[in-house]
Amino acid sequence: MTNKDKICQQLNDKEFITGTVLAERLGITRSFVSKSVKELQADGVQIITKRQHGYKFAEGYDYLNKKVIKENLKTKYIGSDIIILNSVESTNNYAKQLAKSEFTNGTIIISDNQTGGKGRMGRRFFSPHNFGLYYSVLLKPDISIELSQYITACAAVATAETIDKLGDTETQIKWVNDIYLGGKKLVGILTEASIGFEECSLDYVVIGIGINVFNVKKNLPRELFNVATSIEDETGKRISRSILAAELSNNLEKRLDNMTTGEFIETYRAKSCIMGKKVAVSRNGKEVIGTAIDIDDKASLVVQFDDGEILHLNSGEARIIPGQISTFC
Ligand code: BTN
Fold first, then answer.
1. For the whole prediction, is pTM greater than 0.85?
2. Predicted pLDDT of residue 325
3. 132 CB under 6 A from ligand 1?
């Protein structure tokens, strides 16, 4: 652990701690404390400095704490290496970069902020400081390429279960991998993989999960207020992102280890909010409207059209047509 990490471990958002006390506790000089705090502040860590009083986190600042994550992990491989960043373009891109050299299976990368958070279909994922959990896990799964298509749905189930438990709530999944609460989007998941053509096997998989944790209004642009929400907005709970990251890792590993049994599909179906709804999907390159009638055992969305044709969609998007009773999830 670096001295900067050690300083952050000592701080909270309630009481000031003087530079002298910090220096004594950590066995470093006061001027080193002061220099380190300045560097942390420049990196976006919200530390307040007050003369004669010392340092504390800004009120409500939720420090991503590696120690707390580690203490709450019950995993065999997810989180075997934990990288915490203050800011990065995209945790998925960071993970993909790591994958170019030797990497530890299950390495997780979490950032307080993403300057270019990526969504599906080339969209952006808003990722401001002290707002969400931006989490990627880098895996070397020992499964066939065919089975890898289940990873996203499996991750959606694990994420939904984690939020349900910590937020004492009931999330819903919108095929294929968005999680909704109170009719608004709470979580986005972007899975990226590299396939070795020679062996026709998976080189690596990156599962990127973005969860809106704290109040939306203070953090997101106006146009997103009506479509996005957060755990705090819906449940009134301010969940520590470090605890959330640990629990998510625990559930993810459990679900992924059981993935080949197909057991997760049952929960995926039960939590799905799209069934029976009119949806716009792409058929032969054209947008057409059909009814979502099922999710099959391969986690594909089954859509029936007016002409009777039935389509099993294993990727892409299904836009729920507005104006139906309970249009949203
Ligand atoms: C979507 O809603 O279309 C998917 C959003 C996925 C966002 C997460 S945040 C962590 C990881 N890093 C990224 O750049 N994207 C994913």
1. yes
2. 54
3. no
